[in-house]
Design brief:
This protein is an alpha/beta fold and 279 residues long. It has 2 domains: 54 residues, no CATH class; 164 residues, Rossmann fold (3-Layer(aba) Sandwich). Helix content is 24%, strand content 26%. It is built from 6 helices and 12 strands. The strands form 2 sheets. The chain has a 7-stranded mixed beta sheet with strand order 8-7-6-9-10-12-11, sandwiched between helices. Helix 1 runs antiparallel to helix 3 and helix 4 packs parallel to helix 6. The longest helix has 20 residues. It is globular. The N and C termini lie far apart (55 Å).
């Protein structure tokens, strides 16, 4: 058994190995699955980001993210106002932190430029599509304590998390459905971290753009997934590849027209995310 005292731990399983990151003395998060060179399948029913607890010298699953997500709540009190956005994200275990996708350092610079020097103390309302285990929602709630953080997810169990934080509100809804507008409010930031399928992204953008305040920011994460056909096939059993590629072209065309019409003031395209700045 590998040392469970290390920050990162790799444990062999049938077909490969699992890489975990230590969150505190009892909890670990699944960071990466590593497939053996001569193997075609890894024996792991858990998704990246799943939470595990140390019991009797072994790591026991503490979350099944597709059915019953369970959150990691830091035991220690932290001076959130003196920590960077990335440091808050690392404490809560979000994959937006520098432990994986390294988005929060970019976001901090962008928010500073867009909302001003004291943006962390301002009343910034934020909506995030995709709650998962609540780690990102918790990060934003601690970073902007004077604002409201609203999470949207179509898995009901996800909306039962983060109940200990007063500025968090979670709703069970489809982020592509018109009925969502009855459950959300005008906001300054929208983050789409949902299924990452282009048809969902396009529908959510059209649906929610109207409630984004003037000068607001709309972030579309994990945009590389739109081009990963293996990922897409896992979510869409009866995928029509030609139709999907057409939808992807339509989406890019929609954004281009929004820029040309100055509905989008300007657009930033990063390696794995887009940022749309509203005029």
């Amino acid at each position: 058994m590998p040392k469970l005292t290390d920050q990162y731990t790799t444990i062999p399983v049938t077909g490969g190995s699992l890489k975990f990151r230590r969150l505190d003395e009892n909890f670990f998060r699944l960071e990466e699955t590593l497939l053996d060179e001569n193997s075609s399948k890894l024996d792991c029913p858990h998704k990246i980001g799943a939470l595990f607890k140390l019991e009797g010298g072994s790591l026991i699953s503490a979350s099944v993210m597709t059915d019953e997500p369970r959150e990691y709540v830091p035991k220690e009190k932290h001076p959130w106002e003196s920590l960077s956005l990335d440091e808050i994200g690392l404490i809560h275990g979000t994959d937006k932190s520098s432990s994986k996708h390294n988005l929060l350092k970019d976001y901090e610079k962008i928010f500073l430029e867009r909302f001003g020097r004291n943006w962390r103390n301002k009343t910034i309302n934020l909506i995030e599509i995709g709650i998962c285990n609540g780690s990102s929602i918790r990060t934003w709630a601690r970073a902007i304590p004077n604002g409201q953080v609203l999470g949207v997810d179509n898995i009901k169990a996800c909306t039962l998390l983060c109940r200990d934080i007063s500025n968090v509100h979670l709703v069970h809804a489809d982020a592509t459905d018109q009925s969502l507008l009855d459950k959300v409010y005008p906001c300054h930031v929208i983050i789409d971290d949902g299924r990452h399928l282009v048809q969902d992204i396009s529908k959510s953008l059209k649906l929610l753009w109207g409630i984004l305040e003037k000068g607001g920011i709309y972030i579309i994460e994990d945009t590389l997934c739109m081009y990963n056909m293996n990922y897409i096939r896992d979510l869409e059993n009866n995928l029509d590849v030609s139709e999907y590629k057409l939808e992807r072209m339509k989406f890019i065309d929609t954004i281009t027209k929004m820029v040309n019409k100055r509905i989008i003031n300007y657009l930033q395209i990063h390696r794995n995310y887009f940022i749309l700045f509203k005029s």
